[in-house]
Amino acid sequence: MYPDQNQNQPPVQPPTQPGQQPQYSIDYLNQIAPPAKKPGMNNRIFIFLAGGGLLLAVIIGFFSLINSGTGPTEKMQTLAARIEALHTVSDKSQKNIQSGDLRSTNSNLTVFLTNAYRDIAEPLDTNNVDIKNIDKEIAAAEETAAEELTQKLEDARLNAVFDRVYAREMAYQLDKVAALMKDIYGSVKSKSLKDFLVSTDTNLQPLKKQFYDFSAESNE
């Protein structure tokens, strides 16, 4: 038997009489109707936007990681440069101090900073930091800060309040040194460097207290 030639073809509709609207079966209308469009965003556009958003998030995260802060090497260099800069300020300020107690405290500070700068060289060298070859930008930043402090102290001298201002500023500077050493201690594994930081902080704390106490008494 041959296949039915009318198979899979739309059913033939009966002829219409003049003036009569043609009538079609529901199956026939469904076959000739165009497929309905699905609502919503085109899948390709959605994938493109989602992928672009993810890429942007990755880029932002990457640059945030880069700019999140300086590493241990930069902090070690900053500490060495700061100790040297504060030593210069302390040494030059000795002649302007009027109080005998403050002069004695500052003399001890100068010795402390001299020893700290000497003793830090070896543990820094162990951590691949050459104390004689500090990054130029780091050194320049600490030198600028020291120059600004020197100018503030000069203004205090001209206004006859040098001792009070010097004690307050040095207490603040030693606080910054202590905070930096604590930060470095938590980011390195070197035993020699950790030992240096602990011993240096131990010797720094009494000096810092003496400056704070003098500053507080001067403001009473």
Q: Would you kindly provide a written description of the structure presented here, covering whatever features stand out?
A:
The protein has 220 residues and is mainly α. It has seven helices and no strands. The protein has helices at residues 26-32, 43-66, 72-93, 100-126, 136-158, 162-185, 191-218. Helix 3 (72-93) runs parallel beside helix 5, helix 4 (100-126) packs antiparallel against helix 7 and helix 6 (162-185) packs antiparallel against helix 7. The longest helix has 28 residues, at 191-218. The radius of gyration is 40 Å and the shape is globular.
Query: Which range does the strand content fall in?
Result: under 5%
**Helix share, percent:** over 70%
* Assembly annotation: single chain
Task: Give unreliable regions as ranges.
Answer: 61-69
Biggest sheet record: none
Assign the structural class, choosing from mainly alpha, mainly beta, alpha/beta, alpha+beta, or little secondary structure: mainly alpha
**What string gives the helices and strands in order?**
HHHHHHH
CA-to-CA gap between the ends? 121 Å
Number of helices: 7
**Structural Rg:** 40 Å
Shape: globular
The residue-averaged pLDDT reads 82
Task: State the total count of DSSP E strands.
Answer: 0
Summarize this entry quickly.
The chain has 220 residues and is mainly alpha-helical.
Highlighted features:
single chain, 220 residues, mainly alpha, 7 helices
Topology:
Layout lengths: L25 H7 L10 H24 L5 H22 L6 H27 L9 H23 L3 H24 L5 H28 L2
Helix pairs in contact: 3-4, 3-5, 3-6, 4-7, 5-6, 6-7
